[in-house]
Write a structure and sequence with these properties.
This protein is of the alpha+beta class. It has two domains: 112 residues, no CATH class; 152 residues, Nucleotidyltransferase, domain 5 (2-Layer Sandwich). It contains eleven helices and nine strands. The strands form two sheets. Strands 3, 4, 5, 6, 7, 8 and 9 form a seven-stranded mixed β-sheet that branches. It has a two-stranded antiparallel sheet with strand order 1-2. A hairpin with a 5-residue loop joins strand 5 and strand 6.
Amino acid sequence: MYLNTYPFKICRSCSKSDVKKTPMAQRYCYSINSTIGVKKNDKQSYNKKEICPHLKFGNSMCNTKVNKYQVVEAILYRLKTGCQWRELPMKQFFRTAYKWNSVYYHFQKWSKDGSWEKVWQAVLEEYKHLLDLSSIQLDGTHTPAKRGGEAVGYQGRKKCSTSNLLIIADNQGIPLACSEPVSGNHNDAYNLVDTTDKMFSNIKASGIRTDGLFLNADAGFDVSEFRQYCMQNEIIDNIDMNKRNGCESENIFDEMLYKCRFVIERTNAWLDAFKALLVRFETNKYHWKALHLLAFSVILLRQL
């Protein structure tokens, strides 16, 4: 018998007296409770309430042999543990015979039709009152890509092939948007104006105004075109001066406000808790972005 809790279901058999009987399930339940923050007293899973309604599953008659939330839980398990798709413990999630290929099929289908973007925008719009928009933080992240694939390039600093992704977070470290993955041989300022414009458009689609926001970014984003873009969109940029530009800038830089940028490291730490995001094994860039959007949803929902 299972308790439906967010974001995974917890087995009643995983009590301390039954540790020897189900060691795998016990370790699984412990890791989810301690790292993601499951609320055992929730009467209804956030998986069912917030994620599943935006995903298409089965036909109009709903005569499938498994439930949609079970498939989502299997995907969340893969996101959390970073295991291979073929190594998913299917018997933990499904009482009937169900193959891992089917779970992966639904994941790639929802990635292709933009369902994960709809999930994230809906969650962000519903719980935007939990955000702290006194300032926002912009940063890039390079992730090693072991299998190659789309948007992968050699990064000299990491000495391996990586994928680069830009992330915008609020003043608590809660992520707001991410960019499309680009190959690691590009720096953070590559195509920066178009990239951030799409990210801010996604934020606006969730009913969040961007005008008047204070934006912190490191010296890697000290590009004149980006500063001009921020000015045109009434975004107050607080970007560290890049000494490589060769001349002193007339732009105002607030050191006290810039100290708030440390929360982006909290965002990176939260994302690193999802082992599927530590190293990229997804060869499709849209699958890679979809995993990030799903992790964003989990991070925001656990603030409730």
